[in-house]
Amino acid sequence: MTGYFRRWTTFFCGSQNCERFVPFQGSKTSFRSHLAWAKRRNVNLKELATQRCLKSTTVVALIINTNLAILYNPSEVGDEIRAGLKAGDWRTMGFWIGIASSISLFLSVFALIANYTAYSIFNSLSTQNAPIILRSSIGRYTWQKSGDLVNHSMKSLFVVAALSYIEIAQPGPLGATFATIWAALLFWCLLTTTSLGHTIIHTGAMGHDPILRQSVEENMGPDQLSDHLLHQMDLARKAKIPLNYQYQIPFHYVLKEIERGNVDLPIPPDKLNNMRESQFTRKWHRY
């Protein structure tokens, strides 16, 4: 039981820091940045980027429709929300529902504009030149921030739903208790998916090279696989291999060599360049 608790505590919190409590922000841990570098040029990155933007546009359109229905709903609750906003009476729940819904509405509109514009821009790329654009700083920033706005829109919609439930369905302490439970469940969902995302990017799971040989993988149970992934994550954090090299070298072989003490840290750029040589790659097949 102790080992089980330690494994999942490490999985969620990390053995060195609590980075898994933080969603993917910044260029280093950006999920889309890793996606752009991990896929080879024969993979249609243009189609991948445009499809993500289209799906995000559909999601934020639904959120916009929901917030407009809350603000302009011809009901007693809708009248209370509008009256609270007009009067600026911050002591009423209707005022705060209106504020939260307005914030969610404008975040969704910004997300809609960002994703539709990004879709139009990415759709103009050729298949051959899409990787260089999506891997550049401006392309990576545009792709990442359009997704961040969608995430913020969904979280703000949760706030609107929680406040509305407290006001309409269960006013008073009982409603606040339920809203707190839902917030904890939301945090748990975000923490789980974010932890899995960090596991994927730190272990190089987006790349085409296998993390383990198939014969070894098939003889390991779920807990053993989790332990191995955690160990790989620790080695990857120590290695601090730049993103543009991570998917162009035999990444898992390098981690194994670091574990054996055959590679000094930090790895200099000239040595990373040498790792691209075919002789080093052939060693990976013997691992």
Average of per-residue pLDDT values: 80
Distance between the termini: 33 Å
Q: Helicity, in percent?
A: over 70%
Number of helices: 14
What is the structural class?
A: mainly alpha
Count of separate structural domains: 2
- Tell me the number of strands: 0
Low-confidence stretches: 1-5, 14-28, 278-282
Which shape, going by the Cα principal axes?
Answer: elongated
Strand content: under 5%
For this entry, what is the oligomeric state of its chains? single chain
Q: What's the Cα radius of gyration?
A: 23 Å
- Report the order of strands and helices: HHHHHHHHHHHHHH
Largest sheet: none
What does this structure look like?
- It is a single chain.
- The protein is mainly alpha-helical and about 290 residues long.
- The chain has two domains: about 20-200, no CATH class; about 215-285, no CATH class.
- It is about 75% helix and about 0% strand.
- It has helices at about 1-15, 30-40, 45-70, 75-85, 95-125, 130-135, 135-170, 175-200, 215, 220-240, 245, 250-260, 270-275, 280-285.
- Helix 4 crosses helix 5 (about 95-125).
- The longest helix is centred in the middle third of the chain and has 33 residues, at about 135-170.
- It is elongated and about 70 Å long.
- Residues about 1-5, about 15-30 and about 280 have low confidence and may be disordered.
Give a short synopsis of this structure.
The protein has 287 residues and is an all-alpha fold.
Give a topology summary:
Layout: H1 2-13, H2 31-38, H3 45-71, H4 76-87, H5 93-123, H6 130-135, H7 137-169, H8 173-202, H9 214-217, H10 222-239, H11 243-246, H12 251-260, H13 269-274, H14 278-286
Helix pairs in contact: 1-10, 3-5, 3-7, 4-5, 5-7, 7-8, 10-12
